[in-house]
Amino acid sequence: xxxxSTVNRTGSALLALAVSSATLFxxxxxxxESQYYPITPIPIPEGIVLEAGAIQVLPDRQIAVSTRLGEIxxxxxxxxxxxxxxxxxxxxxxxxxxxGVTTRGDGWIYxxxxxxxxxxxxxNGDGRADVFETVADGWGINGDYxxxxxxxxxxxxxxxxxxxxxTGSFTSENPYRGWALRVTPEGKVIPTTSGLxxxxxxxxxxxxxxxxxxxxxxxxxxxxxxxxxxxxxVGNPSGNRWYEKSSDVMGPxxxxxxxxxxxxxxRAKMPEFNPPAIGFPYNKMxxxxxxxxxxxxxxxxGPFANQLFVGDQTWSTVMRVYLEKVNGIYQGACFPFREGxxxxxxxxxxxxxxxxxxxxxxxxxxxxxxxxxxxxRLAWSGKTPFxxxxxxxxxxxxxxxxxxxxxxxxxGKVESYxxxxxxYIYQSSYGSPEVDETKPPIESVTxxxxxxxxxxxxxxxxxxLHELKPAGVRSAKGTPxxxxxxxxxxxxxxx
Length: 495
Fold this sequence. Notes:
Neuraminidase, Immunoglobulin-like, mainly beta
């Protein structure tokens, strides 16, 4: 017998066991989550490859779904509690990997393709697009697989924002690769934010400020949610060569950051550097952060009004994000929310009734969901999960609020909480391990009189993710937290 083959077989068996255990755990958690937020697949007719790059609700409550194959489909009945009879109609084809779709309700559909923003219309009422007009281009494309272009909905000023991936994920061989641009209602292209690497989604929060997801790689130790503030730099200098084309609106090119550093160190040297608002720890929250959605339904989707939901394409999940501004800088916490989607979650959309639609694809990176593509409906059952609702930073620690009153005894014990901090190397190499770990003791815990919040007194570390596991906390009914895990990204300490 070949000893090495025995080792290989043993290793393969252990790997299979580990994968099986992880799948079983995910299935168990998904079953728990389904009590509160059930997933309903929307059957996709045979022959339609619906790798949903973007979704837009239309005035008649149909949805427009754009695909990576360059099509736009209209779907009627997707929001119904039983979407099994949803009707699919192809509206347009022949486009180039559409990763943004929106409308003003005037009959035009605006699609963000790799090379341009296009507006599309059915002028004769036969249900098929017959007018295609270029709204704006002005950025480069050479056919590189990685030169994706993600488009937003219209912002409060009527602009569409376009988040452009780097060339080959490392360099910027064409104009504005690694930038966010604004396309005005008149079609003018405005260079807006530099330092992007590999966007996976773009959307506003409830205040109308724009954010995008960026994925682990060079200068990104993990996946991030980053704010897109005009005139700022968000971390990856590979596209900064295009400052020479945009100095009239962006000013001079910022200094290149030093590799093998830390974000707060380089931020102190660069006034243009706007730090990530949220870190999604790699292989703990996911691996490929994607679409972003704000819950603007005032409670129709449950207790998380005005919070953000963010997909993860590799893990086939949707995460939850609470944001706050401290000293004028965005930061906040991310939480697990929902597992068990059929494919790699890429696009998220919600209608006024509080039903979320999740579009997925596994092409390029694979996905835990197992299906090549999917379109699914996620709705609140009306039953409130016991969760950390918000996580606020204080000068001497954190305040947690909960979706239900807590049991004062369990929530008031220091032993009910595990706490540590860590960060990532800010470097030109790909990704980063967790580094600079600290384990500050929780000095005290104070439960509020109404038992809806808890104050934790502890030391804080600027530039670190603060990992909190309140596994011992119970609700007043004796229920454990559905997701006893939070990661708070700390850029600023309140004054």
